[in-house]
Amino acid sequence: MGENxxxxxxxxxTKKYVKEIKIDKTPTNFTSSVMDSxxxxxxxxxxxxxxxxxxxxxxxxxASLVTVLFISFKNNxxxxxxFSKFDFSFLEKFQALNLFENISISKTVFYSVFFFxxxxxxxxVFLKKYFxxxxx
Length: 136
Known about the structure:
- By secondary structure, this protein is mainly α.
- It has two domains: 2-44; 55-135, no CATH class.
- Helices cover 60% and strands 0% of the residues.
- The protein is built from four helices and no strands.
- The protein has helices spanning 2-20, 30-44, 55-73, 107-135.
- The protein is elongated, with a radius of gyration of 35 Å.
- 0% of the residues are buried.
- The model has no long low-confidence stretch (mean pLDDT 77).
């Protein structure tokens, strides 16, 4: 009951002071002035589109791709790394390597996962830099 009395007192107090408040009239050109200020703000803060990856980065990516393709299709085997020169006989002692002995992955799946991983890493690096620039 005490809570209701307190609420009624607050309600009466609020009604009394709301009646005393004068109603302000807005100017006749209020809407147009607000819209003008919004248009001015939009035009001043318009986002300028810029490339996410710069021209230098695209040149580096293209040069890297051309280099990789050139090296991979080159038939000169003298420059290729030969793993037969290295002695890997000590690896036979480890039994953990035999876990993957029965798993076979096609070359297509291997290359697609590899290139997907490379592209994902590139995107993460470039997007991280992009968002760091946006925050500062």
